[in-house]
Amino acid sequence: MDDLFASLALADIHRDLARNIVSIRDGQELFDDLSDNPKDWQLAQAVEDEVKPQAYESKTPIIHRPFEDAEWANAIGFPFRNWQASRFSDGTFGIWYGSESIETTVHETVHHWHHGFLADAGYCQDGVVIERKIYWVRCDAALLDFRPKSADYPVLVHKQDYAFTQAIGARLYREGHPGLATLSARCQGENFAILNPNVLSNPRHVCYLSYRLVGGFVEVEKQQGQCWMRIPV
Q1: Sign of the dihedral defined by the CA atoms of residues 80, 81, 86, 90, in that order
Q2: 177 vs 8, 12, 16, 41, CA distance in Å?
Q3: Which of 6, 138, 157, 197 has the fewest beta carbons under 10 Å from its own?
Q4: What is the full per-residue pLDDT of the chain (233 aa) written as tens digits?
Q5: HSE, side-chain direction, 13 A CA sphere, residue 140
Q6: Is the pTM of this model over 0.70?
């Protein structure tokens, strides 16, 4: 690993990255179990908004308009508060993943949904559906660039074995690096693993997606009822 780090360059990233999270297309009223009156739901929501602490406040409000708490928490903050094992984390620290394109995020999340969540639950029947939400998130950071090294170190994009990449992530976290750029193991795309949320900003909702398991494929819809991508699993 020392030889790998000795030959790395920095990638000065100033661009939007696609973030793909679990969500729902249609909003749900969280207080409808307390009353049948929609006015009561609105009152309960207003009370909650008054008393809950802010999840995010811009450090430079004159330069960057403060954006809505929920957007920041969903698109940026969640993985830094909810740690779990992944390609570059053993689960002892949080890490955020984004991609250069929406299509790359689809390949990544289809794999983890099917081979992780559904397979682990023993629930891979046709017709299973999950809904997701896509954001563009701005990234401004000097990231360690592992993309040119995948040919010499194919373990960087190994489809199952994460031991090597988790060791890389642990070192970057320990040394305080903001993150890294890497090739996708699922398609011809690029991923960005971020360890410092301060380099991320300006989340904007792009679209909703639906994934449906059908005959050994996951069919992805942007518009309901219209297949946009079809990925074998």
Answers
A1: positive
A2: 13, 13, 20, 44
A3: 6
A4: 889 999 999 999 999 999 999 997 654 444 555 666 666 655 655 554 455 444 444 454 444 444 457 889 999 999 999 999 999 999 999 999 999 999 999 999 999 999 988 887 788 889 999 999 999 999 999 999 999 999 999 999 999 999 999 999 999 999 999 999 999 999 999 999 999 999 999 999 999 999 999 999 999 999 989 999 999 99
A5: 5
A6: yes
